[in-house]
Design brief:
About 40% of the residues lie in helices and about 15% in strands. By secondary structure, it is α/β, with parallel strands linked by helices. Strands 2-1-3-4-5 form a 5-stranded mixed beta sheet. β1 and β2 form a beta hairpin. It is globular, with a radius of gyration of 16 Å.
């Protein structure tokens, strides 16, 4: 059996949907990260960061999208799904990806300080874990990175001017 053909145009499309979720987070004062889960060419889950809104450190876009996807599939195993996320997953989210056994993770902006899909470390392909998944980095990189940079520049400016903003 040959490997499936990966249509990079659909990667671009689905990352655009994740970017829509990131903009939603941005508009709500959250770190602008968005995620969608795709199964058989269809989006089955969408989420944006909701850490501040829910007062929950685990309410990352990826975690919320994975929970929605599990509900949509009716199982905790997401072996035939792909996660599209605008920023490289952190260790918590990467751990959840491994546990749900996603086939693939596609992300936009890398995170060399805290990313767990090859940035600071690579939990998604850690050899002793029970599952490894394919990784496609850098999809719509400039848009994903630009949104994050703009958000954090505004946060720093607000802090400098003494304005209140969510603690990051």
């Amino acid at each position: 059996m040959s490997d499936p053909i990966i249509d990079l145009h659909s990667d671009d499309y689905f990352m655009g949907e994740a970017l829509r979720q990131a903009v939603r987070a941005y508009e709500q004062g959250e770190v602008p990260v968005g995620a969608v889960v795709v199964r058989e060419g269809r989006i089955i889950a969408r989420a944006s960061n909701q850490v501040e809104l829910l007062k929950d450190a685990t309410a990352h876009a990826e975690m919320l999208a994975l929970t929605q996807a599990e509900n949509a599939v009716g199982d905790w195993r997401l072996t035939d799904c792909t996660l599209y996320v605008t920023k490289e997953p952190c260790p918590m989210c990467a751990g959840a990806v491994v546990h749900t056994r996603l086939a693939r993770v596609v992300f936009g902006a890398g995170d060399p300080k805290g990313g767990a899909a090859g940035g600071a470390l690579n939990l998604l392909q850690f050899p002793t874990l029970n599952h490894q998944c394919a990784i496609t980095p850098g999809v719509r990189l400039e848009e994903c990175r630009g949104l994050l940079r703009q958000f954090f520049a505004e946060q720093r400016a607000a802090k400098k001017n003494g304005e209140s903003s969510p603690s990051l």
